[in-house]
Structures are given as structure tokens and as C-alpha cells.
TrEMBL record:
Pfam families membership: YajC
Name this polypeptide is given: Preprotein translocase subunit YajC
Native source organism of the sequence: Periweissella beninensis
Domain of life: Bacteria
Keyword Transmembrane set for record: yes
Record family assignment: Belongs to the YajC family.
InterPro entries: Preprotein_translocase_YajC
Keywords per UniProt: Cell membrane, Membrane, Protein transport, Translocation, Transmembrane, Transmembrane helix, Transport
Keyword hit for Cell membrane: yes
Its membrane topology: Single-pass membrane protein
Compartments, as annotated in UniProt: Cell membrane
Transmembrane feature ranges: 6-22
UniProt feature coiled coil, ranges: none
């Protein structure tokens, strides 16, 4: 009797694990689809090869996009996008005007001057 119970318990646990993993994958798939549907020119993206750039154009019929990486235009499949960087994150990375301005500071020179020992004082 306990052998049957252990077998049933094991099967129930496996079924629950299967449904939990399937639910997680479905959620990831829907998040990715919503990210791809919102993709438009001007969006900052990171590819699966960790190449950062700005989307120049999107071709939904061929499922490709053109990436502008500092003046170099590259064509990728839409599946090559690892993530889209939000505007809030992107603005936090940009240096502000205050951070780029330099200010003049006074530096105090604290170097020690070592004088040679006088041979007459040692005697």
C-alpha cells in the first residue's frame, strides 16, 4: 500500500513541476513578444552578442532590424535582441552637464625636503 502511495505522490509532484515550468516559459514568451511589439526606431538595445546600439529601422516582414552602433549600420534578426534599455535607465547613464564641468582646486604640496647630513655634525 505504501509503495503505491509513493508512486502516486511522485507522479503528482512531477505533474506539478511540469505545469510550473510551462507557466514560467509562457510568461517569459509573452514578455518577449510585448517587448518586440514595442520596438521602434530610436530604441536603445543590447544584442545577444552584447553589442549596444540604437535601432535605426525595423522590418517586420523580414523580421530584421538595422542597428546603429556609433555610425556602423548592421542588420540583425529580431531574435538577436537580448534586451531593450528603458529611457529611464538610459538617462541615468548619460553624464550631466554638472558632472562634465571642471572646477579649479588648490592643491597643497606636502612633499618633504630631505637635507643631506652634514659630516661635521656627526663628530
Amino acid at each position: 500500500m505504501s509503495g503505491n502511495f509513493n508512486l502516486i505522490f511522485l507522479v503528482v509532484i512531477m505533474i506539478v513541476m511540469f505545469f510550473m515550468m510551462n507557466r514560467s516559459q509562457k510568461k517569459q514568451r509573452s514578455n518577449r513578444e510585448s517587448m518586440m511589439s514595442k520596438l521602434q526606431p530610436g530604441a536603445h538595445v543590447v544584442t545577444i552578442g552584447r553589442l549596444h546600439g540604437v535601432v535605426d529601422s525595423v522590418n517586420q516582414t523580414e523580421k530584421t532590424f538595422t542597428l546603429d552602433a556609433d555610425g556602423v549600420y548592421l542588420v540583425f534578426d529580431l531574435d538577436a535582441i537580448a534586451r531593450v534599455i528603458d529611457d529611464g535607465v538610459d538617462q541615468a547613464v548619460k553624464p550631466t552637464k554638472e558632472a562634465t564641468t571642471t572646477t579649479e582646486t588648490n592643491v597643497i604640496d606636502k612633499t618633504k625636503t630631505v637635507l643631506p647630513k652634514d659630516e661635521n655634525t656627526e663628530k
